Amino acid sequence: MSDYPVAPQYIKDFERLGFGMFVHLGLYSQLNQGEWVYSIHHMDMKEYAKLFDTCKIGSMEHIVNVAKSAGCKYITLTTRHHEGFSLYDTRGLNTFDAPHSPVGKDLIAEFVELCRAADIVPVFYHTTLDWWHPDFENDFDKYLDYLFKSVEILCTHYGQIGGLWFDGNWSKPDADWKEQELYQMIHRLQPNAIIVNNTGLSARGALGAEEIDCVTFERGMAEPIDLTGRTKYVAGEMCQTLCDHWGAADDINFKPVKQLIEELCECRKVGANFLLNIGPDPDGTVPAMQAATMGCIGRWMKTYGKAIYNGCPYITYTDKREFFLRDRDDPDTAYFFQFDPGQSTGDVNVSLELGDNGTKVLEKLDRPVKSITWMDNGTAAEFTQQGDTLTVRCDGYFYGTSLCVRVAEVKF
């Protein structure tokens, strides 16, 4: 393992956050047809840009409150999406920004202040592709100068930020994006900021430039990152949508809460963060179904959040979904994740998923187990251990509770 790089502290801190909320908010929100409506519907930019005159984003408060209710430790917000409109003050680069619109204020300044008050880390999404700016197609070097200056503003006017999340390099795969220069500028101005550049649906987990701090898995389950032979440690993050769009849309195809909780857990199994997206209404309000879904996840996090935040990869299996995380701070503590726990009356196990007598046989335990305690109600789980094989009785939730994935704290 001598050639396996050690994570610097700022990447360790990012991995500990565990669960974040993605927010797609822009002019496109007014059309309620998704964040790609301009491109997909082949709109005219002069007509599309008129949405600037009717922009009515009010406050970022509801967005931050929803993230807090979900147990999210960070928010990644679209400071500028592909449409070219900026939620921040571009300070003379152009007037196609929130302060010059009817909004009349720097929304990112407000967002950062609210995040800090809620103990949430602000992360800035920023497009590299730009449909609005003419230099993107006509003079790419000049456009890159504009992009660099835009990013510099975000790095120098909002205090310490959690990171920058880029998206769009895939639009010009053969161009010289001057990535190293951009990332070096960021690390000089914001030494503890995570740098992410989305590789898209077709290249999930691709490592990309050497300065990248985190790879992405867009709407696809995160996998362990092979860093053998690499000179730098890289984190992982899966970004997922609640429905079929990132931005506001006429979309009721919502994913079940159970699926989202399971994906959160399976991300942590391989050490990746889970970044779950919402698409607010034009005024910045989070729609009821999205807010309620995030709130349901938050109820699960109130019970099991310690395992998500503190846990890091430990023991996994190829023949079962169950796994163990170990505690980052306490070498004598681990967390056992049980999927589809079913329910129990207290005396009779009613789950059909657990096998004979409601037990799970788990191998690869490298230490004697002293106790196993279910985190939801504090009851002890019965278990026996022979060598590295642990047999745990998993009776499921008592009637009146059903939280999709059950977690127990294991003491060695």
Overview of this protein structure:
With 412 residues, the chain is α/β, with parallel strands linked by helices. The protein has two domains: 9-310, TIM Barrel, CATH 3.20.20; 316-411, Immunoglobulin-like (Sandwich), CATH 2.60.40. Helices cover 26% and strands 22% of the residues. The chain has ten helices and 18 strands. The chain has helices spanning 9-17, 37-40, 45-48, 61-70, 107-117, 135-138, 140-156, 179-189, 257-269, 288-310; strands at residues 19-23, 74-80, 121-127, 163-167, 194-197, 214-218, 235-241, 273-278, 311-315, 323-327, 333-339, 343-344, 359-362, 371-374, 383-386, 389-393, 397-398, 405-411. The protein has an eight-stranded parallel β-sheet. The longest helix is centred in the C-terminal third of the chain and has 23 residues, at 288-310. The chain is globular and about 70 Å long. The protein starts with 8 loop residues before the first helix and ends with a strand. The relative contact order is 0.12.
